[in-house]
Amino acid sequence: MIGKLTGIIDYIGADHAMIDVRGVGYIVYVSERTRMALPPRGEAISLYTDLLVREDLMQLFGFASLLEKEWYRLLISVQGIGAKAAMAILGTLGAQATGRAIALGDWSAIKAAPGVGPKTAQRVIMELKDKAPAAMELGGSLAEAVLDTSERDEVIENDRPPARKAAPKAAPTAHANAEAEALSALQNLGYSPTDALGAVAQSAQDAPDADTSTLIRAALKLLAPKG
């Protein structure tokens, strides 16, 4: 199993890229969001990968973060969701927003992905809602695939130098950590994973830049008994 590739961008296609790893070119299919974030040809890149093997087909899919890869694996476990549909969902929403949509039961957001119909979108919600809390908790620890400076320089030196030196990717946003920490805190207070996830997802949607304590307070208000 190929779990990660680090190499040089050879070219970028409509839904894939070729990564030159010490003279071997790997065609890696990526979501639209990941494709748009790829560096230019000739620069170093590191992607987490998942290999799809069928009788007549082998395809390598690439992900900018382990969280994106985790959601891909969850999505393809749903009946009617293949690799293409899973990448379409992640390309439309991104990993974090996919988790929030599932937590909130927002099947219309899932349906917005090309090729995903309403029945399939509803099935995604039904089958993954109970699995979403674990994935969201991972969001705080699954860092983006940032190519370490020394590793990047080694790749560039040993393969072929790019036209300009690649800049490091941005570090993971603090908000991913805030959502995961808020979810964990609510579960420690005795709320069920599903209830806690729904409240945190709604709070994060209402206040995208909220820190952990703000998310916890907002979620607690949503979870408070009504009346």
Automatic annotation (TrEMBL):
Subcellular location: Cytoplasm
Span list, region Domain III: 174-227
GO biological process: DNA recombination; DNA repair
Keyword Transport part of the UniProt annotation: no
InterPro entries documented for this protein: DNA_helicase_Holl-junc_RuvA_I, Hlx-hairpin-Hlx_DNA-bd_motif, NA-bd_OB-fold, RuvA, RuvA_2-like, RuvA_C, RuvA_C_sf
Family membership: Belongs to the RuvA family.
Record text on subunit structure and interactions: Homotetramer. Forms an RuvA(8)-RuvB(12)-Holliday junction (HJ) complex. HJ DNA is sandwiched between 2 RuvA tetramers; dsDNA enters through RuvA and exits via RuvB. An RuvB hexamer assembles on each DNA strand where it exits the tetramer. Each RuvB hexamer is contacted by two RuvA subunits (via domain III) on 2 adjacent RuvB subunits; this complex drives branch migration. In the full resolvosome a probable DNA-RuvA(4)-RuvB(12)-RuvC(2) complex forms which resolves the HJ.
Description of its domains: Has three domains with a flexible linker between the domains II and III and assumes an 'L' shape. Domain III is highly mobile and contacts RuvB.
Stated name of the protein: Holliday junction branch migration complex subunit RuvA
Organism: Celeribacter marinus
Originating gene: ruvA
